[in-house]
Amino acid sequence: MPSALACRTGAALLRSFSTSAQNNAKAAVLGASGGIGQPLALLLTNSPLVSRLTLCNAAHTPGVAADLSHIETRATVKGYLGPEQLPGCLKGCDVVVTPAGVPREPGMTRGDLFIPTASVGATLTAACAQHCPEAMICVISNPVNSTIPTAVEVFKKHGAYDPNKIFGGTTLDIVRANTFIAELKGLDPARVSVPVIGGHAGKTIIPLISQCTPKEAGTEVVKAKAGAGSATLSTASAGARFVFSLVDAMNGKEGVVECSFVKSQEADCAYFSTPLLLGKKGIEKNLGIGKISPFEEMIAEAIPELKASIKKREEFVKNMK
């Protein structure tokens, strides 16, 4: 089944790359000095698929960029500071990844991040719409169930919206599902593929165990870190995996499939995560939910929460000046 193509981990992807990639991407990371941004930038720098990497954050990015530039890779790296330097960071980019945001603390849900991330996300998205409207936009800032509706509405406001080019990061849910099931079954995680649909918070995360190949968590990390942050390294790896898959597809590789939270008609909800066939211009085909088991009928429980998150962000953007 197509979703089996999405089973590779970030490490396996790095091993599979050829240095003869046709079109090396110009990528940007917004929020590059944070706990997710730095390891994500490191992974992108080390990929032969990336020829230029620009980094932006409110602080420290020149130092991060200088550090990365000492690594013997083909990518050139440059750091930018603050919103006033966003135009230079974004100009000419093919792919933009935004891990910018606030880490969760014990007792917090992803929804609790709405207020501290709302204005930051809108500012960054508006800059993308103005300075690299043709780029692929990969948003991994939480809460993803709300940040993607924000990105879509902001792009619409600027007349730059393309439904095939804005992606919400749910790859971490797939990486975790693959890892946990492989551990339970004594399998190689790189050979396990579990499609995860719905959204990226609580009950909206729906792993389709019945579609797992071969047949057969985030809160845990927050608690384990005891106030020192949320998942960063695994999130960075998942974000890099999605970027690499996307660039592979942009370079003409066929059969590239990843799950992502996007504008959708696959469920009774304006946005929904499903397996996507990626192509040169972004989403080539939404592969939908597929056949599900009675156990997986939890989709009905996820819809109200997703609708509430979506409505909250759409109203936020609508009221922006």
From TrEMBL:
One of its GO terms (biological process) is tricarboxylic acid cycle. Homodimer. PANTHER family: MALATE AND LACTATE DEHYDROGENASE (PTHR11540), MALATE DEHYDROGENASE, MITOCHONDRIAL (PTHR11540:SF16). This is Malate dehydrogenase, mitochondrial. It comes from the Eukaryota. Substrate binds at R104, R110, N142, R176. SUPFAM superfamilies: LDH C-terminal domain-like (SSF56327), NAD(P)-binding Rossmann-fold domains (SSF51735). The active site is at H200 (proton acceptor). Residues 26-168 form the Lactate/malate dehydrogenase N-terminal domain. InterPro entries: L-lactate/malate_DH, Lactate/malate_DH_C, Lactate/malate_DH_N, Lactate_DH/Glyco_Ohase_4_C, Malate_DH_type1, NAD(P)-bd_dom_sf. It comes from Nyctereutes procyonoides. It catalyses: (S)-malate + NAD(+) = oxaloacetate + NADH + H(+). Residues 170-317 form the Lactate/malate dehydrogenase C-terminal domain.
